Amino acid sequence: MEGSLQAHMALNRFGLGASKAGAASIKDVKAALKAEMVVPDLLTHLPSSPQLLDALYAYQAARKDNRSAPEASRDMSMTDMAPKAAGASNMAPVKPKKAAKSAPEGPENPRRQIFIDEVAARYDGTLRAPIIGFNERLVVFWANHFAVAANRSLPVGVLAGAYEREAIRPRIFGNFADLLVAAESHPAMLIYLDNQQSIGPNSRANRKGARGLNENLAREILELHTLGVNGGYAQSDVTSFAKVITGWGVDRKSGQFGFNANQHEPGPQTVMGKTYDQPGQAQGTAVLRDLAGHPATAKHIAYKLARHFVADTPPPSLVSKLEKSFAESGGNLTAVYAALIDAPESWAPQPTKIRSPQEHMIAMLRASDTNMRPAAIVASLKAMGQPLWEPPGPNGFADTADVWASPEGLSTRLEVANSLSINVAERLDARELSQSLFGAALSESTRTAIARAESRTQGLAILFMSPEFMRR
Amino acid sequence: MSIHRRHLLGLMGSSAAFGAFGTAHAAGGRDPRFVTIILRGALDGLSAVPPVGDPDFERVRGDLATIKADAVSLNDLFALNPAMPQFARLYKAGQGAVVHAVASPYRERSHFDGQDVLESGHEKTGYTRSGWMNRLLTVMPKGRAIPIKGLGVGATTPLVMRGEAEVLGWAPSSLAPVDPDLPLRLMALYEQSDPLLLKVLTEGIETGKIAANMTQTNARGGSADPAVMVQMAQGAANLMAQAEGPRMAALAFDGWDTHTQELPRLARLLGGLDQAIAAFETTLGPVWQDTTILVVTEFGRTVNINGTKGTDHGTGTVAFLAGGAVKGGRVIGNWPGLKDAQLYEGRDLMPTTDLRAVIKGIAADQFGVSGAALSSTVFPGSEPIAPMKGLTA
Does A407 sit within 8 Å of B204, measured CB to CB? Predict the structure, then answer.
């Protein structure tokens, strides 16, 4: 069934691509998008960060036992994955008999299983269920804006999915300040950007003067998460802000955020011209809330949202509309999304964005109504250049065509599209599917190329690699 | 003889053995194997088995007529594409035959629909739930000691073998690579509508990151890669050679849609097909004597050459028969001629043989399937199409 041109645009530009329900089920396009402005599935059946850290600590403790056991047979490849700064590991061999019995009896590394569960919950669930999937697109956008890299260390790897579920999902329709505070105070972020180890120079923990500040998180909050690289902050602001958030870390016992007063730099700090003299944790929260309300943040977020949904170089008029909405609503994200949907600039008929590999993958699975094994999804995303939650750095994955439209990327997309086509060719006709996916937006050239394909499989592969499907 | 002995030994453990013995060999006293190879994309029968003795051949084929120089003579009228020396050998040994000017009942020119009709065994499009080979499994005469099982080769079972009868599946692990024809088609598409993707794809092909050369003999491809064709044939033959293995198999080879550069592309593809047939012969061993391989395609191609040294979608084409059971050494069919007035719709080789007659003949001769079952279940509505008897011994 065909839908209106606008319905197709909503599905592709603002959503995850058409699924079986198709564009025909969307009548009032803007109303349908706004109806999806509700908190997405929080995936509460998956383990929480404390549970995951418990499992990780148990695994690490067991490995430590193994390592200290005199006759333990060690798996060298696993040794690389073991925590490095584990303390005095050569002392007191514990239960050498049990430890010598090698890995299979101890707790397993939780990383693999949780990744499989996280992928299944999304690729068989949250990414497939919605008609449009606007809220899930926003989840991906914000998780990438506040990126953590699962390949950075074992704890971040174990927590990456829980971070998205706990910090991002519940808050994408609330106030930006709340989202910001939740992201920066989540164990995954605090571990990823080293704040766990940052010690105030004049704190009690540094009485011997041997340790000190780590500016990593403070800098990235200013540069990437709030003001933006040209947002008007100086090195002194970075240093002061880093001092403000000393003590923000992970409580080993609870597995949750913990404020360690011993690590916290005492006294007032000045950030962006304002002095903060709140005690303890409140000092950091106050700075974050002010950063959230800074005009540079409104501009930065407006630009990134417009670039993500509409064009690599978004129309300045659209960016100003979003910026104005952000500022006037005090960072109310739902208001900003509404401004995005209402702006005529968002509905230019010619799609210019190239789908990221992840978006391409999701769109193919939705269009073909296919479930893939989680391990195969992980492997495919990696091959296509966008391994799940493993961006190259804290700036997240790129959001522009010049990065994704590369010969290597196209080559692996071809392979993934081809494999998927082989698997679904028995039950799908590319001619019908292309019509239901794109309706009036299907170009004559793509229609002809599909009709002339020499097999069902090839027809589907052409559809999945067509400009209509590659762009949104 | 050794086959029958092994067959008999296989029955010894079964209490029903002796009761079943008499009917197990009802169809000519042997244990036949039947393989169908589908060539997806429409094989040009006039380049595969060129009618070099037809007075109009050189006139209508233009540059494609150069094949005449190297083609291997089959009889006064026909020659064989030089890329098929193994089939030429089988033909001379009486184990290879060609049916020319043949077609399924499909008369339009869409690959998808053409393949659906070819494989489903229905006269019209829109039947994609089961194929004629699968339904053939369901109408085998009862009482065989070893039930006749089917085998689908490839990442997905070809439609011809899908359906209610349970079939085995087997695929060589190297089937996943992208058919090198696909990037060329995308290139043509991007040329029309997407300069950025065109630039990136062109760069990928030029730097060798994306394989897109149909004539390159070592190109890694899917089932359009000659090496993969041979692997598929060997895998199928290994299973079929076993005493209790499948007796029927379906394979599909891609890549035959030669709109451009037809002769070099066919040289590679027909070479792969030729090697695949030889791989069946070698791997099946003594079972080859009871084997019939049928090679078919969804339709033929235009009689005239097009502007890019290729041909466009047409109608009549060839089918190949190979195997020890084939009464070979002949080109079967009524030659319609190549004069303008003799062509189908003024452009295609006129089909004079219905492919269903060929298949019905093999099914009747080799497996003893009744004409009624063939006309109702296997090829519904095909009563007027009489089985072509005597294709196989």
Answer: yes
Put simply, the answer to whether B204 touches A425 (Cβ < 8 Å) is no
What average pLDDT does this structure show over A11-36? 90
Q: Which residues contact B195 (CB under 8 A, 6 or more apart)?
A: none
- Could you tell me which residues are beta bridge partners of residue A248? A259
Q: Which uninterrupted H or E stretch holds A144?
A: helix A134-145
Q: What is the ipTM of this complex?
A: 0.85
Q: Domain ranges in chain B? A: 28-173+220-378, 181-215
Binary contact (B40, A461; C-beta < 8 A): no
How far from A72 is each of A80, A95, A109, A279, CA to CA, in Å? 16, 11, 18, 49
In a mutational test of the A interface, the residue from B185, B190, B253 whose CB has the highest number of chain A CBs within 10 Å is B185
Residue A48, φ and ψ in degrees, nearest 5? -80, 170
Of A401, A406, A465, the CB nearest to B186: A465
Q: Does A379 touch chain B (CB under 8 A)?
A: no
B4: pLDDT strictly greater than 80: no
Q: B201 falls in which pLDDT band (50, 70, 90)?
A: very high
Higher confidence at residue A286 or residue B109?
Answer: A286
The Cα B371–Cα A239 span in angstroms is 90
DSSP-assigned beta bridge partners for residue B150: B167, B248
**Model confidence at A83, in pLDDT bands (50, 70, 90)?**
very low
CB A372 within 8 A of CB A400: no
- Beta-carbon contacts of A377 under 8 Å, excluding residues fewer than 6 positions away, are A119, A123, A361, A388
Give CA–CA dist A156/B245, Å, rounded.
Answer: 52
Phi, psi of A274 (to 5 degrees): -115, 140
Q: Does residue A280 sit in helix, strand or coil?
A: coil
Q: Across the interface, do A458 and B179 touch by the CB < 8 Å criterion?
A: yes
Buried b (16+ CB within 10 A) or exposed e, B251-286: bbbbbbbbbbebbebbbbbbbbbbbbbbbbbebbee
Q: Which two tokens stand for residue B275?
A: 């090697």
Cβ contact, residue pair A426, B162, below 8 Å:
yes
- Smallest CA–CA distance, residue A367 to chain B, in Å, is 19
Which range has the worst mean pLDDT, A15-19, A98-102, B9-13, B175-179?
B9-13
Dist CA B63 CA B306 (whole Å): 10
Distance CA A42, CA A331 (A): 22
- Residue of chain A nearest B196, judged by CA positions: A405
B118 to chain A, closest Cα gap in Å: 13
What pLDDT score was predicted for residue B219? 43
Residue of A nearest to B160 (CA): A426
What is the CATH number assigned to the segment(s) B28-173+220-378?
3.40.720.10
Please compute, for residue A54, the number of CA atoms within 13 A of its CA located in the half-sphere on the CB side: 7
Give B122→chain A minimum CA distance, Å.
17
For the residues B177-198, what does the mean pLDDT come to? 90
Tokens 């039930």 correspond to what residue?
Answer: B147
Is residue B123 classed exposed, middle or buried when 0-12, 13-18 and 19+ CB atoms within 10 A define those classes?
Answer: middle
* Separation CA A27–CA B252 (nearest Å): 43
Scanning chain B, the segments in alpha helix (DSSP H) are 2-11, 17-24, 45-48, 57-61, 85-92, 111-120, 132-138, 181-193, 195-206, 226-240, 262-284, 355-367, 371-373
Cβ atoms of residues A156 and A188 within 8 Å:
yes
Tokens of B370: 């009744």
User: How far apart are alpha carbons A239 and A243 in whole angstroms?
Assistant: 6
**Residue B322 contacts residue B34 (beta carbons within 8 Å):** no
Question: pLDDT class for A176, splitting at 50, 70, 90?
Answer: very high
Report the alpha-carbon distance of residue A127 to residue A118 in Å, rounded. 12
